[in-house]
Description:
This protein has 21 helices and 28 strands. By secondary structure, it is α/β, with parallel strands linked by helices. Helix 15 (about 490-500) packs across helix 18. The longest helix is centred in the middle third of the chain and has 18 residues, at about 385-400.
Amino acid sequence: MNRVSTLRGLLAGAAIFATPVVAQQANQPVPGPQASTAHPDRWPAAKSRDLVDPATEAFVTRLMASMSLEEKVGQMIQADTSAITPEDLRRYPLGSILAGGSSPPLGAPDRSPAAPWVATSQAFNKVALEKRPGHVPIPLMFGIDAVHGNNNVVGATIFPHNSALGAMRDPDLIRRIGAATAAETAAAGFDWAFGPTLAVPQDDRWGRAFEGYSEDPAVVRSYAGAMIEGLQGRGKATGGGKGPIQQGHVSASVKHFLGDGGTKDGVDQGDTQVDEETLIRIHNAGYPAAVNAGTMTVMASFSSWNGAKMHGNKSLLTDVLKGRMGFDGFVVGDWNGHGQIPGCTNADCPATFNAGLDMAMAPDSWKGLFETTVAAAKDGRIPMARIDDAVRRILRVKAKLGLFDLARPYETRADVFGSAEHRAVAREAVAKSLVLLKNTGVLPIKASANILVAGDAADDIGRQSGGWTLSWQGDGNTNADFPNGQSIYAGIAQAVKAGGGTATLSANGSFTKKPDVAIVVFGEMPYAEMRGDVRTLEFQPGDKQALDLLKKLKAAGVPTVSVFLSGRPMWVNPEINQSDAFVAAWFPGTEGAGVADVLVGDRNGRPRRDFAGKLAFSWPKTAGQFTLNKGAPGYDPLFPFGYGLSYARGGTVPRLAEVAGVDASLGNTSLYFARGQVPAPFKLAADAGVTVAAVDGPQTQEGARQFSWNSAGTVRITGPEIDLTRETNADLLLQVTYRVGTPAKGPVTLGFGAGRIDARTLFDAAGAQWRTVRVPLKCFRDKGADVAKVGEVFSVTSSAPLRFAVADLRLVTDPAGAVCPN
């Protein structure tokens, strides 16, 4: 599930790659008219546990007998907190509320502690439960994306993302993580966690690959039931007693049914082009176990199967999931996903309910969808039997969850957030998920050593937590937003202080006294769906800042340990070559001490804890190996599935080839100028009336270029035509770091592609300080840019004197301070 409404319905299945690349590709188009129709008898049988019993069914029957059609339809529609008020429920009796990523609680910022969230839940339920004429009081079901802990609440414990958890191979720990997540979710007023993700990612370019436990269906299968039991409470959804919600548990929602991890080219919301046997064997692997464990809800996928949108695929939603696999809970949609079905809109879609969707996630389209669905039920386009089946399933879950019992003891349990018990579980998960790829003997580090901790992510809890952390994309976070968290640097410092050593933080690797060893923490920036899609797996193409830091330390004779943060395996051969040890730490969450537990030994260098992590995703040998799957033809990874060194079982890694294996135009589509260089495949050019000179940048000597207009002219950076449609629809921005020496004396235009905007206000004041401006790509598109064919990625045109310097130019995801000059 995702957040920004402008992204809904865009690029479903669209190709995003400007240049073809040779890579292993397991998914091939499947021809034939029946390619998207499932045959239930081929699928594994399963059966929901603890959801249907006579007492609950009788209760639901009595309740439904008193409900109007409008109240029944209301149960089938979910709205977002950003687009509905409690008062709206008096006219529109909806059954569910969600807070999507970055959606705030009522009257509070999105980065809020538990109290405003509890107040929001209570405010909506107060209206839903009012006794008024013509209204049947029914509690709401409040959902949230608690995908690695209750990642929406300030102070909550943030666990490693799923791609890290897969490396543990520990279902019991998964169950304990689920229980801790549930407690911190229930305590914030939520009833429902939109997770776990049971995708089996087959292409690591997919921006949601970190939400999958593994490329291997067996690992996903082994975790599915355990996480459900942790979230919902094993055996706690039984009739007659307190429901799970009163005991600090919440409803799970396994997602995304089905095939979200197999889309062609790893395109988010794309098309999974596989035969039915492959869909069953790989992508359905976790669902029977989840159904058998009693999952209360299943979320439909944005993606398609051989061209047919999952939100409208009756053969899978009804015939397979509810029929063959015996699922007795309800199916919820993803964010306006129903609107992507041919013939539907976000506000009108009988087809999705007829296909088997029970509750549509209509965050900002709920009012229109309510009205059209009522009309469709009245005129028979949606049979009343289908309406009643959906409502029964929804009310059944609400009853089994305990929502009709208004006692909510966990809503007063502020003590559970970031509790010592939960942090200990997260710390254990961090330690068990680390995968040692290389060690020449520098690890473990003596606790008595003088350690330099370097890298731009060393003291940044937001960086180590990744996407879906306090905001949808995980951007904009500072350490102050994690009052119960600990950065990797802080965890190392704590460990060495206890052992008599020292830990010095220096992001750029500078030092006065030569350290015994350096730990360098670097990796991907946080991201989530759509924005996280990449074209190749090369790390930092065109601007290898981490590699330069590693080379600097190596030249100084400092033994170096790399701690690499990422949501997926990436091509980092050059960085591995420059490291004496290399650790895949994934996105470990808020417990940085878990890294120190394994890297830092005792005073004599004996391990305090050994490495236990084993790769759940194969590691690429080149940046073009996108679909390295165990058992696939031609399987040839750098490090195979299951690889992982330890102190007890060491190994050596020879020097690795440093040829990325992809065309430069494919590898770099978002970095245009950095540290004094225009990286391939782009080139800088200036008209005769403009002079160009190297000047010092904010951090690097001669790391900027100064442009001075002597007469009318243009400065431009150009390259091969690239398709930036996906980036534009994902709200990416052109970020320019610059300094004005001589203000503009006349009109100035800023260009991207064929789009031109009036940018004089950006250059109308001189100053000694560097400034950063971010302009949405949509701004250029609206001014004439064909974002599917961008050859000119930056231009400035002036007809009068102007002098300014540029230090950095790239596409970014962070919208803070965005402007669209007019």
